[in-house]
Design goal:
By secondary structure, the protein is α+β, with helices and mostly antiparallel strands. It has a single domain, classed as paralog of FGE (formylglycine-generating enzyme), CATH 3.90.1580.10. The protein has 6 helices and 16 strands. The strands form 6 sheets. It has a 4-stranded mixed sheet. It has a 3-stranded antiparallel sheet with strand order 1-4-16, covered by helices on one side. Strands 5-6-7 form a 3-stranded antiparallel sheet. Strand 8 and strand 9 form a beta hairpin. It is globular and about 50 Å long.
């Protein structure tokens, strides 16, 4: 097996940018059974419970160890990565309601601590702006995951969509903190993401439980001969999607879901989660509904993507990115379960 490089550990594709950088849910909800819960549209119910978080195969990085027991309350997870269509709808609402500004190709929030949310000039961005309206590019846009989103952009999307739907936003733009008792959309925690990706199965390498191998028939990723568990008969980039303009993403829902009904929890696009990244965090005592370190320089990303190999698609695999970074990263939304 090939050794990972520093570049592979960094989730972004701007290597120069990485260089020099320091590297409430109720008890009633926690006991709710899957059969008694009606998920919101296009969201899956993830039941409460303990699971073993980390690399049970011992083949990843030290930051995936030790394997430890984590307790997660019930929550909802978006079945799909947020699409370009959804981003356009939310950004247009935010612009009409004076929540964002667009300067050149840079989209920023207005309130609190203004941050870059999206840069429309980035090559992989499939969204355009004509001075008054957002729209989609002609190819690889509608139905595809929205990438080139900063962590701040993902958080802002959650807050704006919450307002659109009459929910209470979770995030405060003054300090980018999260009110976990709010009923609005939010990013999942890293523990929630891994529990959801595992689909209720223990000790598996990928989000499915019938095999511990991966092929292009199951995910959009870069297939190589470097890992025995990559048994794809086709190698390189996924042959169905590696054409035209980048990104070589696939439309959301192109592959079979896991046991929780979640799509693309492996490959296609990196996904932002809430947590700060810390190398040795898994060695610290675990707490219920862990939300990661209290501070840090990076945020965690999960899932792998179309241009990264099979090792990045493992459910235990962790990566990190500067929260203002964009290039390969998208996200999906989560909701807390109401009492």
């Amino acid at each position: 097996m090939l050794a990972y490089s520093a570049v592979q550990r960094w989730a972004g594709s701007d290597v120069a940018e990485a260089a020099g950088r320091p590297v409430a849910l109720s008890a009633a909800a926690a006991g709710t059974s899957l059969a008694n819960v009606e998920p919101p549209a296009e969201m899956a119910f993830i039941p409460a419970g303990n699971f073993q978080m980390g690399d049970s195969f011992g083949e990843g990085f030290p930051d995936e160890l030790p394997v430890h027991t984590v307790s997660v309350s019930a929550f909802y997870m978006g079945r799909y990565e947020v699409t370009n269509d959804e981003m356009v709808d939310v950004l247009q609402w935010a612009y009409r309601h004076n929540r964002i500004t667009v300067t050149g190709a840079t989209v920023q929030n207005v309130a609190g601590d203004p941050r870059d949310l999206l840069n429309l000039n980035e090559t992989q961005c499939r969204i355009t702006w004509d001075g008054s309206a957002f729209a989609l590019k002609a190819e690889k846009a509608s139905g595809y995951p929205c990438v080139e989103v900063t962590w701040y952009g993902a958080v802002a999307f959650c807050s704006f969509r919450s307002e659109m739907e009459g929910l209470t936003p979770c995030y405060d733009f003054l300090d980018w903190s999260c009110d976990w008792s709010a009923n609005g959309y939010r990013l999942s925690t890293e523990a929630e993401w891994e529990k959801a990706a595992r689909g209720g199965a223990a000790g598996r390498r990928f989000p499915w439980s019938d095999t511990d191998t991966i092929q292009h028939a199951r995910a959009n990723y870069l297939s190589t001969a470097d890992y025995a568990y990559d048994t794809s008969p086709t190698r390189g980039l996924h042959p169905d999607y590696a054409d035209g303009d980048i990104p070589y993403t696939s439309p959301v829902g192109s592959f079979a879901p896991n046991a929780y009904g979640l799509y693309d929890m492996e490959g296609n696009s990196w996904e932002w989660v809430w947590d700060y990244y810390a190398t040795h965090y898994y060695s610290e005592p675990s707490e219920k509904d862990s939300r990661g370190p209290a501070s840090g320089s990076y945020r965690v990303v999960r899932s792998g993507r179309w241009g990264y190999d099979a090792s990045n698609c493992r459910v235990a695999g962790r990566r990190f990115a500067w929260p203002t970074g964009r290039k390969p990263v998208g996200f999906r939304v989560a909701l807390s379960v109401s009492p």
